[in-house]
Amino acid sequence: MPLQFTANLSLLFTERAFLDRFAAAKRAGFAGVEFHFPYEYDKAALAEVVLTSDLEVVLFNLPAGDWAAGERGIACQPARKAEFQDGVGLAIEYAEALGATRLNCLAGIPSGERGKAIETLVDNLAFAAAVTQRAGIRLMLEPLNTRDTPGFLIATSTQAMEVIEAVGHRNLFLQYDVYHAQRMEGELAATIERLLPRIGHIQIADNPGRHEPGTGEIRFDYLFECLQQLDYAGWIGCEYRPTGATEESFGWLQRWR
Q1: For residue 149, which of 35, 75, 144, 197 is within the disulfide window of CB 3.0 to 4.6 Å?
Q2: 241 by DSSP, 3-state: which?
C-alpha cells in the first residue's frame, strides 16, 4: 500500500506564517500535518484553519516547558508534576478542537538523579496514558539524541521501551524518529520490525544535518520498502529542515506516497 506522509509545519513551509502553512501543505499534496506546539494560537481560530484546509492534524507535542530557554519537556521533573498534568489537560483540549489523534511526550532533561527522573516520568506517563485514552487519543514517547540535545533523559528506543514497559499501559506507544535513532543506535529497519507493534508514529530526516531524504547517509528507499513489506499503516512525519525552499525538497516523495 502507499505510505502516508505528514508535513511537519514547524520545519516545513517556514517561508510562510504558521497559519498559512496548512494551505501550502495541502497544495503540496499532503493529507496530514503535524507540528511541535499549537498553544500560542487560539483553539477556535486554529480549528477553522484546519477545517478549511481539509487536512488531518496527526500529532503535536504536550507542553514542554520554556522551549526558548532550552527546556525539552518537563515529564521527568519531580517538582513539576502538577504543571505536567495541567499541560496534558490543555493538550487534550487542543487535540479535541483540532481533531488530533496523537500527542507526543518529551521526557526532558533531568535536573537531579536519573533514577528519580525515571520514576517521575513513569508516574507522569501513567497519568497521561489514562486520560488521553479516555479522550480517544494515543500517547507517544519520543527518544531524542543526546548529540543534539545533551542530557536528554530518553535517548534510545531501548530506553524508551523500558519506560513504556514500566508504565504498562496499552495507550502508550513509541514515537520512532529515524533521524534521532540513526544518531544514537542505527539498525533502523531491524529495530522498526522488532518494535512495530508498539510504534505509534514514525518521523524522518536524513543524517547528518536533519535535512530531506537523499541528502545524507540513510538508505530511505530500503527503509520505505521495509515499511511496505511490514504493512505499516501509520503516518510518517516529514520532520526535516529543507536544504532550500520547502517545495523543492519533495523530489524523493513522489515515488512513495
Answers
A1: 144
A2: coil
What are the angstrom distances between the C-alpha of 203 and each of 51, 60, 65, 226? Answer: 24, 12, 22, 15
Contact 38, 60 (CB under 8 A): yes
Return the closest-CA partner of residue 187 out of 142, 154, 226, 215. 226
Residues 6+ apart with CB under 8 A from 121: 75, 76, 107, 153, 154, 163
Q: Nearest Cα to 188, choosing from 175, 178, 202, 173?
A: 178
Please tell me the pTM assigned to this model.
Answer: 0.97
Catalytic residue positions, numbered: 142, 239
Residue labelled with grid coordinates 514500566: 166
**Dihedral angle at the C-alpha atoms of 13, 14, 18, 19, nearest 10 degrees?**
-30
69/65 Cα distance (integer angstroms)? 9
Max CA distance (Å), the chain: 48
pLDDT of 254 above 90? no
pLDDT digits (tens, 9 = 90+) for 49-108: 999 999 999 999 999 999 999 999 999 999 999 999 999 999 999 999 999 999 999 999
CA distances for 20 relative to 50, 163, 228, angstroms: 10, 38, 32
Q: Are 207 and 233 in contact (CB under 8 A)?
A: no
CA distance 24 to 228: 27
Domains with residue ranges and CATH for the chain: 4-247 (3.20.20.150)
